[in-house]
Amino acid sequence: MVSVILDNLAEGQPLEAVLESYPSPTPEAIQAAIAYAAELARAQVASMAAKPRKAIAMPAVRKPTKETTCAA
Q1: Exposure on the CB side of residue 6, measured as CA atoms within 13 A
Q2: In the chain, what percentage of residues exceed pLDDT 90?
Q3: What's the pLDDT at 11?
Q4: Residue 60: pLDDT over 80
Q5: Which residues touch 22 (CB under 8 Å, ≥6 apart)?
Q6: What is the pLDDT of residues 8-32, one digit of tens each?
Q7: What confidence score (pLDDT) does residue 55 get?
Q8: CA distance 62 to 31
Q9: Contact 17/11 with Cβ under 8 angstroms?
Q10: CB of 2 within 8 A of CB of 25?
Q11: Binning pLDDT at 50, 70 and 90, where does residue 53 land?
Q12: Could you tell me the CA-to-CA distances from 13 to 6, 7, 10, 22, 30 in Å, in that order?
């Protein structure tokens, strides 16, 4: 239910419309869902920052040659 409410809010639906569509959660419960999502996002960012990053090999970029370019 948390993800459904957050999806609706993220799509731009006003809080009042969400409350009308889903009458069981209270405004406080929706605020708690938003706080929970924010905490999950912070934890994910912190987890990503704590992990050592591997170097990514970038493919070499070849310079265009006469054969690979088109004359306009």
Answers
A1: 12
A2: 31
A3: 94
A4: no
A5: 1, 4, 5
A6: 999 999 999 999 998 899 999 999 9
A7: 65
A8: 52
A9: no
A10: no
A11: low
A12: 10, 9, 7, 12, 13
Q: What is the pLDDT of residue 2?
A: 83
Give residues with Cβ within 8 angstroms of 15, minimum separation 6.
9, 27, 30
The token duo for 57 is 């090999």
Amino acid at position 4, single letter: V
Tokens encoding 47 = 């987890």
Helix (H/G/I), strand (E/B), else coil: 1: coil
Token pair of 23 as six digits? 């009458």
**Which tokens is 31 given?**
């605020």
